[in-house]
Description:
alpha/beta
Amino acid sequence: MKIVPLILVLVFGCINTDKKENQDTQKQKSDTTYNYPTVSYLDLKLENGQLPSNPYIVEFTNGKKKIVFCGTMHLSKADLNNPLYKKIEAAFFAFRPDVCVNEGGDISQKIYTSKKEAILSDGEIGLTKILADSLKLSCVNGDMNEAYEFKNLLQRYSTEEFIAYVVNERLMWELKGRKIFNQQDVEKEFNKFIQGYIMTLGKVNLTETEQSFDFFKASFEKTVGRPFDINRPEPSNPFDPKGKFQEIGRVSKQIRDQNLIGTIDQLLDAYDKIFIVFGGWHLFTCKPGIEEIINRKRK
């Protein structure tokens, strides 16, 4: 899942419902290049929707070029003693990489005073950064920025579909988790989300009407087929082939996958050993692309 900065909202990656749709998308979206092979969420076969282990660690090797990918199921940041963190740390020091890749945005300038603070603040993202700092390594953001993602989504979907999906997925589920149900409080959080996240961070230009809560509710009902209810945000399970939100979610995740593989591809030109900590589904969907780029001949 995509992780939005906490100051705005906390949320927390493939594209099309079939191969033909993927090919059509490539032809339509001249600004979005799908250069790397990936696996669709609809083709993933995982028992009970879970990773084989947490973290699920896979190593890709070609001569001196090596990648260790720690795929994770995200946890409560308060769970300091979860084996996930110890296993990531053990894999890191066993591998001793040249560079790290993290999920969830640019944390290169963040400084943590302790491992405990890093995990409590940012979970495995914070842990990756403090581990990188311990060996004086760079920590590179493997996620795209919101402006790039939103630009690509709006090339494919209407403003109504875009607003309905993003607000539902990245705000309303978070408000439900925080038990914010009062209409006035919901609208206050909505206005901050529209202005701060979608328009400022995402660089999306919206009319005054499109910025309104009424526009969101109308867009939600038109897209989903039922009135919006803060107690019932719409699920967007990427494994479900039915539903507009499910489809948009897969498209968003494919954009993220392409960005992640592209980032790794560039890093392989400069580094031999890359350590990645990212959502576990991305390990499965990106595996063909990672195998392709690590086997590529480089200078």
